[in-house]
Design a protein that fits this description.
Chains A, B: Its cofactor is pyridoxal 5'-phosphate. 2 copies of one chain form a homodimer. By secondary structure, chain A is an alpha/beta fold. Chain A has 15 helices and 13 strands. Chains A and B meet through helix 2, helix 4, helix 6, helix 11 and helix 12 of A and helix 2, helix 4, helix 6, helix 11 and helix 12 of B.
Chain lengths: 366, 366
């Protein structure tokens, strides 16, 4: 605990940080709301200009008939699964073993919706067409996460996505996208959001990851689907009297960043290149396919932390505020490129990787 | 539709409004956040100073070991019911036929938690000790709403509340408070929040009704209860990355208004008196026991609306922005006293009731 806290503290004292958009402080909200007309009426239980306009904008952007703003992706995705299960009368869905619903939601899908997941693919790779073809069980819905966050943001080839979509339509299996980071995949796929979404029956996107809002999610699909989703949103306790404190930042940040994901993607490839030149480091994927990747380092967590801390203090540049254990010999952390990267002077960046490489070399020789 | 929209428009153009605190516009949030230090860190998934401090403050105020901030009361209360049902191994709870869970939550309690409610008391009165003693079914939890909103904010005598609490403890029935408007009841009961809460095992309060925040709720109980509630909050999709856009307004508004409820209560009694002097009007309750009451008027909705609209335009004072039908001959609306009432000049208030009475008299003679 002590060591990790100290890395966070050292990170917070650096002048530059390599990943992300900005600090998560109250100023983010203050700045956004300074620019908004105070006379704008609050949304009230899902109605009003502020929520209608953003939902319509996102439906259009995603190429879907309708979209609903949710306080969280957890709520939006469980509800999507429930709607497709109820429609088919089967309480089974398939997803990746490292799916958000499987590892981050305290088993909400089972405990609230009595839905059993079928886990497809191995933990270290994305779901393939062969995995889907090889399924023995009848399912209502297949969930694909684009990109697969827990393995560094990997993506299937686009042709494989199309083949999976085609197969699901033939078999009457609903295809749902966990597109928490959908916009982040578009520069690699060289597609519009609507083109990718056309392969799916329902789509969730987060408004606070690459988009950089405060919290919230969009769930999109056809009008019959979103009509049901709104009923379930009330059941879940997500139909708040006013969601504008999240909707307005989502809208402002979407407009500010929707065309910046190609830049983040190029920066991610550059940064992964710098990491992969260091001793004992490999990124996953080696060449990123979005704005994100994982940094795997051949040192145990307790030996890596003091090194990253020293790098913060010597260079004034923060690489990561935390380290996670992979096993006794290896650790990792996640990097998602955002607005901050472009603010770092090139020589600072060169320097931080020289210092890091030197320290890792010494540590690995010890 | 046309007529009701016009009443709302006329109401929105008045100089003074009798009920509530202020308009629901973006300015509310802007004003509150202007005063906050921008360096304050956002809460992250239920952790951080901003959420800890407010939860601790509310736990202390309610006299409970622990408190959890929720995005909504709908979520908080279903979760309280689920925890008590799981603890007892019985999927039944008892509440009033006009309980929020029964009429405003799209059946979430049944659809998400498979909990069956037992409805106690008649629709037009609060749950009595006799209702509780007369229950035939075994239940895990009894929910009491203080005050009972849908019947104008009625309250049981405090001694009856104590007797119900005593009986439930003896029988191993958990007692939960829907205290959406708990602070509003304290001047009538002449008790502290902690004294009333001591009769209950778990308590929910809203932070945006009398307190006047933007959205959100507090669920309080012992530490084992709130620990479980936090797990369920994640399952429901309520563990947002940051809830500070609701927590900070809740805190600011709690501090600003926690000592004003006696004033609102006195104003409610005065205002109900003015209403009851008018032809064809009776308030429910006749003498309010909180800051709220319902105004029942012996005219059908479609005849009352143009009268209220004309009152708006002639006096510049808005009494209500809507009317609901009771039956073919009677309509009603709800009034909750807040900051606005004290801003209305006395002569304006006298005048609006003279005009209203005159118009009702004419209408009732027609």
């Amino acid at each position: 605990m002590g060591a990790q806290k100290t890395l966070l503290q050292a990170f917070n004292q650096t002048t530059y940080q390599v990943a992300g958009h900005s600090k998560r402080d109250i100023r983010q909200l203050q700045r956004i709301f300074q620019e908004v007309d105070g006379d704008l009426a609050a949304d009230v239980y899902g109605s009003g200009e502020v929520i209608d306009n953003f939902q319509n904008k996102m439906a259009k952007y995603l190429g879907k008939e309708s979209a609903v703003f949710f306080p969280s992706g957890t709520m939006a995705q469980q509800i999507a699964m429930r709607i497709w299960c109820d429609a088919k009368g089967i309480r089974k869905v398939a997803y990746h073993p490292l799916c958000h619903l499987e590892i981050h939601e305290e088993d909400g899908l089972r405990k609230l919706h009595q839905i059993e997941p079928v886990l497809l693919a191995d933990k270290d790779r994305v779901i393939s067409l062969a995995d889907v073809l090889g399924m023995n069980e009848e399912i209502a819905c297949l969930l694909l996460e684009l990109p697969q966050r827990e393995i560094g943001g990997q993506l299937p080839p686009y042709e494989e996505l199309e083949a999976i979509s085609h197969y699901c339509r033939e078999k009457g299996i609903r295809l749902h996208m966990d597109g928490a980071r959908l916009l982040e995949t578009l520069p690699y796929y060289q597609k519009t959001a609507a083109e990718v979404c056309a392969l799916f029956d329902s789509v969730y996107i987060s408004v606070y990851k690459g988009i950089g809002g405060i919290a919230g999610a969009i769930l999109a699909g056809d009008a019959a689907f979103t009509k049901e989703a709104i009923v379930w949103k009330r059941r879940h306790g997500g139909d708040l009297i006013s969601l504008y404190p999240y909707i307005i930042p989502a809208d402002v940040c979407f407009e500010a960043r929707k065309d910046k994901f190609a830049e983040y993607y190029e920066q991610a490839k550059e940064l992964a290149g710098l990491y992969n030149q260091c001793h004992g480091i490999s990124t996953r994927p080696t060449v990123p396919v979005s704005n994100m990747f994982h940094v795997h380092i051949s040192l145990p967590k307790e030996r890596l932390e003091p090194i990253l801390l020293a790098v913060c203090e010597e260079t004034g540049v923060g690489l990561s505020h935390y380290v996670r254990e992979v096993d006794e010999a290896t650790s990792y952390y996640e990097v998602s490129l955002g607005d901050r990267y472009a603010t770092i002077p090139k020589e600072k960046l060169q320097n931080v990787f020289q210092v890091l490489d030197q320290k890792l070399r010494e540590a690995l020789q010890a």
